Amino acid sequence: MAIYYVSATASGGGNGSIGNPWTLAEAISGAANGDEVNVQQGVYTSNVAITQPAGTLFRGYAVTPGDEGQFTLQMTSSLSGGYAWTLGGSLRALENVILTSSATPSPRGIRLTGDSRLSNCHVLDWTEFDAISNSGTGTLDKCLLDSTKSGSEQAASRSLSKCSQRRFGANEHGLDRCVAVAKSGAIQDSFVVTFRSDAVNCVSINSPGRGFFAQFPANQMFRDCISINDSIAFASGSANVIVRCVNCFQFGATTVSQNIINPDITTLAADPFVDSANLDLRLTNQAKASVYGQRLKAIMVNLVEVPGIVTDSLSELLSGSAGFTGIRGTSRRLGA
């Protein structure tokens, strides 16, 4: 196993050491099974589809290796509908990345196949299907999907921020601590789970389609999830297969549930967040004082590590003191 380094200012021809780093393209072609590639925070552009080498870990860092920071990959080509980054095969991981596109429409986003893992990921300003797609047995953790393109763009009307995946192992969840927000109505379905996957500790906001959708129902579960102002909060593709909702909340949905058997969904009297439209995810005083306040707070604690979301006071949040305010979006509105 070797450890390599990548820098956005590298001119090419380096050996991948921290003092003479690779370019991102050199890392993709030079890393081998078992290698760890540390990508320094910065903006990297690409007009070609990237396939991560088998068995590798690509991880963003800030200034010093080990300090967590996200690197930005900006796509400059639509790739004829192809994927910007593919994690194929098994045991590949991608951590701490922001994916954006200057191309219109954007390409498809990040594709997971096999036993791969995506963590601490933003997908911003997306105008194409499959911002994140998982056709294998991989996992997503702490991911945020954000679409801010205007409705006047041709692709925006069919833009989809989708996590489509299966359960990884007996005790793992396909979707964990993910947030999807549509600030301009560009997203259709926020979270799409297939086969036996679950969604846990996830929040969907402003989806004009379905917030949580079991596309091919087979005993999926939505647990500790919150739907805010989605057209349809929780839905199943079949009325004859059990899809469970456990400790879920919704506010503002036109339809609370569709084909969900015995749903445990609490309809809130008001938006529990201070300003969900701008991802200011702090519990209002009314929500904190409600009989469901502690259940909402427990979900919020698990969302602390979602990238792009910060706490007013982490110590208060974890201690459960009266000063708890929850989590809120950054002032730059998620990269805007």
Mean model confidence by pLDDT: 77
- As a whole number of angstroms, the C-alpha radius of gyration is 20 Å
Helix content: under 10%
Quaternary: single chain
Q: What does this protein look like?
A:
There is one protein chain. The protein has 4 helices and 29 strands. The chain has a 17-stranded parallel sheet that branches. A 4-stranded parallel sheet has the order 4-7-9-11, with no helix packed on it. A 4-stranded parallel sheet has the order 15-18-21-24, with no helix packed on it. Helix 1 links the parallel strand 1 and strand 2. 51% of the residues are buried.
Write the layout of secondary structure elements.
Blueprint: E1 3-6, H1 24-30, E2 36-40, E3 43-46, E4 50-51, E5 57-61, E6 71-75, E7 83-87, E8 93-101, E9 108-112, E10 117-124, E11 132-134, E12 139-147, E13 175-176, E14 179-182, E15 191-195, E16 198-200, E17 203-205, E18 210-217, E19 221-223, E20 226-228, E21 232-236, E22 244-246, E23 248-251, E24 255-258, E25 265-267, E26 273-275, E27 280-283, H2 285-289, H3 293-302, E28 309-311, H4 314-319, E29 327-329
Parallel strand pairs: 1-2, 2-5, 3-6, 4-7, 5-8, 6-8, 7-9, 8-10, 9-11, 10-12, 12-13, 12-14, 13-16, 14-17, 15-18, 16-19, 17-20, 18-21, 19-22, 20-23, 21-24, 23-25
Antiparallel strand pairs: 26-27, 28-29
